[in-house]
Amino acid sequence: MTALLEVRGLRKHYRAVRRGLRRLFARQQTGTVRAVDDVSFVLQAGQTLGLVGESGCGKTTTARSILDLVRADAGEVRLDGQDVRPVLAGTDRAAMLAVRRRMQYVFQDPYLSLNPRWTINEALREPLRVHAPQHQRDWGDRIATLLERVGLEPRNGVRYPHEFSGGQRQRVGIARALAVEPDVVLLDEPVSSLDISVRSQILNLLAALQDQLSVAYLYISHDLSSVRFISTHVAVMYLGRIVEIGAVDEIFARPRHHYTAALISAIPVPSPGAVDQRVHLRGEVPSAMNRPAGCPFHPRCAAALPICREQVPVLQPMGPNTQAACHNPA
Amino acid sequence: MDADFASSPVSVLATLQRPPAGVWRQAWHRFRRNRAGMIGLVLVTLVVLTAIIGPFVAPYDPNDNAAMLRGASNAAPSARNWLGTDRNGYDVLSRTIYGAPTALAVGLGAMLIASLIGVLVGGVAGYVGGFTDEALMRGAEFFMVVPVFVVILAVVRLFGIIVVGTPLERIPNFNLMTIILLLGLFSWPQIARMTRAEFLRLRHAEFVEAARCIGTTPREILFRHILPNALPPLIVLVALGIGGAILAEAMVSFLGFGDPKSISWGQILFFNYQSLKVAPWACLAPGTAIFVTVLGFNLLADGLTDAFNPRVRA
């Protein structure tokens, strides 16, 4: 069975070079930022893969490369077995639209992802205009249905984004992504810019929509508790690489990579008097520009062995549904 | 959807709520409370109205210097000539009124040229980026460092010589058009730089990326997403530039390099400054007109800056 979305060996490196005319005088390259390094995962229809990691670990770059918002250096993005990266980068507009119709993106900041000069109706009309230009008569109904589906009143469609709260705007962002009835929605930290009280509403909405529409999510977040709530699978990223991936229950029950263990132990326990069993990490995340040799996590890892300093660990099966990249798994 | 929305009982509630405010409406709302901006708008409206209806109400033909033949040049204001006559026997009021269309033609014409070039160059530089950006912006800097006045004076004088005996000589106001063209050609870099900055900012704005995700064509992204959002600061620059261009033309004309066939305030000053002590009204009237017009456009630009700044929410 071919997976709905399969990412294989995705890589995006940024060269830190001098820009502009100065480039002519100082040609030397100053470094390489390995934002995404050999990332592979599989997303089945109707499932949710949570992609977690600290800021700057390459979660967003991964998602953006999938939709060619950032041009990846290497790797394949297979949608139902077909590599879509050349299609998205290519000139065949019909083929490109066919792919875009199936994969949509919800942006992190709902204050920035809506054109301030367009009413909500106009914002929702855009995907319809691009993908269903011949059904213009149905647009009004479809927009109303979409707004209702995300919990907004259709009569508010004549308003402008600045008249809405962050949560409401994010609902509009979700409605826009759903307008073309996609199979995969990439959610780039959809709740992290929202108030705590609104987060759960949006997460519940996302879960309900998934039940109704059986859409698959790639859910990017640094908040593990929300990942646990919404995901069926989870992938943990550290410095551009996936260090552990698998079914969410198994990984939360028994994290094998020490970084995953530290992240999970950092989830606040909502009960007073709970014993603090937190694994405290030493040091800071190294810059992605000079990643440590061997296992990128070894300088901060309590269980580091001599081999960790020399050899990069690869993902290996650890349980029935999990893989981890660690020489000395927990 | 809109039709049944209007007929439903909800619509009564909806009409009671304040109408949805777009960016333009919001800006107008803020602008109306800005005293300086409103004064500017009134002054500019005054000048525009004068330019449009002035020729119908002006008491004399602008080229009527019959007063000179009566020996009534440099006459003080009277019932016959409300603002007096100048040293050539022209009616000062009529000449000043007829100067308004010229001033507006200079201001609007120069800024139209500057906007077209500026938005095109700045837009391409900001959107394409890379080497194109560098090349275009260095070109813009070249136009910024060239002293405009020296160029205008030289070109006007040069054209004055070259044109003689060619069909170009018969084009009315050829000199004035040269001045407008040159002013436009040397004031676009400001607009180009602002356009570039806005395009750079908006090119990676999330709503532009969102549109790209949906599959919107680059053309639509440019004209429906980026350009409308880049417009407000450009409008401010253009309003400021109109005042600047009018002032520049007045200066050129005052130096005697203006168009002898057109009526411009700067030129009236040039003709009359020597009789300033004898007939001050002949200089005061066009001087005031320049002052009011330039002040109007500057205040208008000032008000627009505040109106388009969302952080000022008074």
Automatic annotation (TrEMBL), chain A:
* UniProt KW keywords: ATP-binding, Nucleotide-binding, Transport
Q: Which NCBIfam families match?
A: oligo_HPY
Cellular compartments per GO CC: plasma membrane
In its UniProt record, which GO terms are filed under biological process? Answer: peptide transport; transmembrane transport
Asked if Cell membrane is a keyword of the record, the answer is no
Localization per Swiss-Prot or TrEMBL: Cell inner membrane
Q: How does it sit in the membrane?
A: Peripheral membrane protein
Protein's recorded name: ABC transporter ATP-binding protein
Which PANTHER family did the record assign?
D,D-DIPEPTIDE TRANSPORT ATP-BINDING PROTEIN DDPF-RELATED, TRANSPORT ATP-BINDING PROTEIN
**Any Pfam family:** oligo_HPY
Family, as annotated: Belongs to the ABC transporter superfamily.
Q: Which domain of life does the UniProt lineage start with?
A: Bacteria
Coiled-coil residues: none
Report the residue ranges that make up the ABC transporter domain in this protein.
5-264
SMART domains, per this entry?
AAA (SM00382)
**What GO MF terms are annotated?**
ATP binding; ATP hydrolysis activity
From TrEMBL, chain B:
As for subcellular location, the record says: Cell membrane
Keywords from the UniProt entry: Cell membrane, Membrane, Peptide transport, Protein transport, Transmembrane, Transmembrane helix, Transport
* A Pfam family of this chain: OppC_N
In its keyword annotation, does this UniProt entry include S-adenosyl-L-methionine? no
Entry-linked PROSITE patterns? ABC_TM1 (PS50928)
GO:BP terms for this protein? peptide transport; protein transport; transmembrane transport
Residue ranges of domain ABC transmembrane type-1 in the record: 100-301
| Membrane topology label | Multi-pass membrane protein
Q: Which residues form the signal peptide?
A: none
Please give the chief subcellular localization of this protein.
membrane
Does this entry carry the keyword Transmembrane?
yes
What sections of the protein cross the membrane? 38-58, 103-130, 142-165, 171-191, 234-258, 278-301
Listed InterPro entries = BP-dependent_transpt_permease, MetI-like, MetI-like_sf, OppC_N
Question: Which Gene Ontology cellular-component terms appear in the entry?
Answer: plasma membrane
Give the record's family classification.
Belongs to the binding-protein-dependent transport system permease family.
Please report the name of this protein according to its UniProt entry.
Peptide ABC transporter permease
Species assigned in the record: Reyranella soli
